[in-house]
């Protein structure tokens, strides 16, 4: 696992086919440029692992999921670009826009991961925390979690994913608007009512992590072809019409229904045993290595 670890993120395999990524930047898991770039790279590396089928994202710190953007380590890039280009706002805007897109791409890493990503939040979860959570597939919160879409309190509109994804995750548009405008704290219970999380786990870090790992282990026993395809089709459905998604699903399953996993799943039911599925990456990687 050491080859997957970074300076700020630790990767482990607590159960077969389940990879756990934990943020460990004391004291509050604040994100600067180095942290979010490493975040993206860790997800990219984990996605290519032979045995991965489910990823759990959590914090390794007892009281914080993340305090959001690290405003102390360096000034916001907006101010850096204005200082470097004091007489030309257009060039400053061009460079700042590129920086924002890089940041957005990095925080969307769980969405690009071909396998489900389950996030377990606890403690303080501010600002960027909502961007991170919204890009994950399954979202659990400990009962002690305190959330906030904090950006309005520091003079900007959230720009890394919250405002793009949150309206599509929830049916309560009024509450989304209220929380984004006011930047007020909201509890795990209110986050569930909003639709940001699907489950509130009584307790703190360890309790919500245990719950996330339990559902991850259940998913990891399913056909990786089926689970990967389900994620792909759900994401496509979110951003497209029903008719377009049905066409996409037909094209996708025209290939994927040829998998041996279906025969294995049926056989396991008949023989009353657990199915044994091949990993998604291992066979391909071995063939690629053989060609080299």
UniProtKB/TrEMBL annotation:
GO terms for cellular component: mitochondrion. The keyword Lipid metabolism applies. PANTHER family: DELTA(3,5)-DELTA(2,4)-DIENOYL-COA ISOMERASE, MITOCHONDRIAL, ENOYL-COA HYDRATASE. Pathway: Lipid metabolism; fatty acid beta-oxidation. Belongs to the enoyl-CoA hydratase/isomerase family. The keyword Nucleotide-binding does not apply. The lineage of its organism: Eukaryota, Fungi, Dikarya, Basidiomycota, Agaricomycotina. InterPro entries: ClpP/crotonase-like_dom_sf, Ech1-like, Enoyl-CoA_hydra/iso, Enoyl-CoA_hydra_C. One of its GO terms (molecular function) is delta(3,5)-delta(2,4)-dienoyl-CoA isomerase activity. Transmembrane segments: none annotated. One of its GO terms (biological process) is fatty acid metabolic process. This is ClpP/crotonase.
């Amino acid at each position: 696992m050491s080859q997957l670890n970074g300076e700020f993120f630790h990767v482990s395999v607590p159960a077969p086919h389940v990879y756990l990524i934990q943020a460990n930047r004391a004291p509050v898991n604040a994100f600067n440029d180095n942290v979010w770039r490493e975040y993206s790279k860790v997800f990219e590396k984990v996605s290519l692992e032979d045995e991965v089928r489910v990823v759990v994202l959590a914090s390794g710190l007892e009281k914080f999921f993340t305090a959001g953007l690290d405003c102390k380590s360096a000034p916001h890039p907006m101010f850096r670009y204005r200082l470097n280009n004091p007489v030309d706002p257009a060039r400053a805007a061009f460079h700042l826009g590129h920086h924002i897109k890089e940041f957005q791409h990095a925080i969307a890493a769980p969405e690009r991961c071909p396998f489900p990503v389950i996030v377990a939040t606890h403690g303080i979860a501010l600002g960027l925390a909502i961007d991170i959570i919204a890009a994950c597939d399954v979202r659990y919160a400990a009962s002690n979690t305190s959330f906030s879409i904090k950006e309005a309190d520091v003079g900007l509109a959230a720009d890394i994913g919250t405002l793009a994804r949150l309206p599509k995750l929830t049916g309560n548009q009024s509450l989304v608007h209220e929380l984004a405008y006011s930047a007020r704290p909201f509890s795990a219970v209110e986050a569930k009512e909003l639709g940001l999380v699907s489950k509130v786990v009584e307790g703190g870090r360890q309790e919500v992590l245990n719950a996330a790992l339990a559902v991850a282990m259940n998913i990891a026993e399913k056909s990786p072809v089926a689970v990967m395809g389900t994620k792909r089709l759900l994401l496509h459905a979110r951003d497209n019409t029903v008719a377009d998604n049905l066409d996409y699903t037909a094209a996708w399953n025209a290939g994927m229904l040829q998998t041996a996993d279906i025969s294995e799943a049926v056989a396991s039911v008949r023989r009353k045993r657990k199915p044994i599925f091949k990993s998604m990456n291992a066979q391909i990687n071995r063939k690629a290595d053989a060609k080299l």
